[in-house]
Amino acid sequence: MDQGIVIKSTGSRYRVLCTDGNVVDCIIKGKFRVKELKNTNPIAVGDRVRFEFEQSKRSGIITELLDRKNYILRKSSNLSKQSQILAANVDHVFLMITISYPETPVEFIDRFLITAEAYRIPAGIIINKTDLYNEEEKSRMDHLVSVYEKIGYKCFTISLKNKDGLESLIALMKDKISLIAGNSGVGKTTLLNTLNPALNLKTEEISDYHKQGKHITTFPEMHHMPFGAYLIDSPGIRGFGVVDMDRNEIYHFFPEIFRISQDCRFYNCLHIDEPGCSVKNAVEKGEIDPLRYRSYLNILEDDNRKYR
Ligand SMILES: Nc1nc2c(ncn2[C@@H]2O[C@H](COP(=O)(O)OP(=O)(O)OP(=O)(O)O)[C@@H](O)[C@H]2O)c(=O)[nH]1
Ligand SMILES: [Mg+2]
Ligand SMILES: [Zn+2]
Fold first, then answer.
1. Which residues line ligand 1 (CB under 6 A)?
2. CATH level 3 topology of 96-233
3. N or C: where does the chain have the smaller number of CB atoms within 10 Å of the terminal CB?
């Protein structure tokens, strides 16, 4: 029996990097299901698996999925019931965003971050394409950096075009498996190509008219970096639905809201308009960013709709 880590999954075929360094294409047999989860993909990039090698076909059959340290789930939309595992066993997730070309909505950032919090995976934010921004966009960027750094998320402002700002990012990625996620067209694949030019992965300009990416990367895939790291490139995410969260625990995953909520008058305060709510108070005093608070309310509201 051989063992390895899944570096690419296309739904029916899995590419497995073995402990001896060989790469083997594998399939799963019949109904291979992971008990408790209802996912479209039972095995994801980052999963550790055992497989039987078939000499004659020079390929393998996966027989066992080893225990996961973690995984990150996404739903394609808020209404969809099915979720997909973006990646498993990651040490770190990086959300790549752009202020424009295309513009990443703040609520999208927050939906991603609370998911990472819920799965207890350290998260950072990469703001790319700084070479393109005008003064107004730069000031929006600086604002985002100050808001998220204050909460405790590391932010990296980079330009892949100018190879600017990469050193501290590389230092954090070293010796880890990191997932790179974000909207289509923000430059996720370009990051991998820049850090390992031998990869030469496919990238594509965003559309002239809508300033949106064209969903060039179609499957998550893990790649080795010469400085000693693995990065998982992933397909552009449109919307990010939060998965498996109780309405009354959503605020636990906004670290700054959670901290302040200890002082609310009611233990079951949802921080909407309850009397004695320290969270609302902090928003009014500017201690909690209004956009973060708005994201929180919107996610609550979505949740309401889901159960109606
Ligand atoms: N000006 C500028 N363009 C960049 C930068 N980084 C990436 N791009 C361009 O942005 C476009 C999209 O980059 P990709 O790497 O394909 O984006 P992606 O996030 O992988 O997109 P999907 O695979 O569709 O999810 C390409 O034309 C890149 O050359 C940058 O720092 N500055
Ligand atoms: Mg891509
Ligand atoms: Zn409250």
1. 128-129, 131-132, 159-161, 182, 184-190, 203-206, 213-217, 235-236
2. Rossmann fold (3.40.50)
3. C
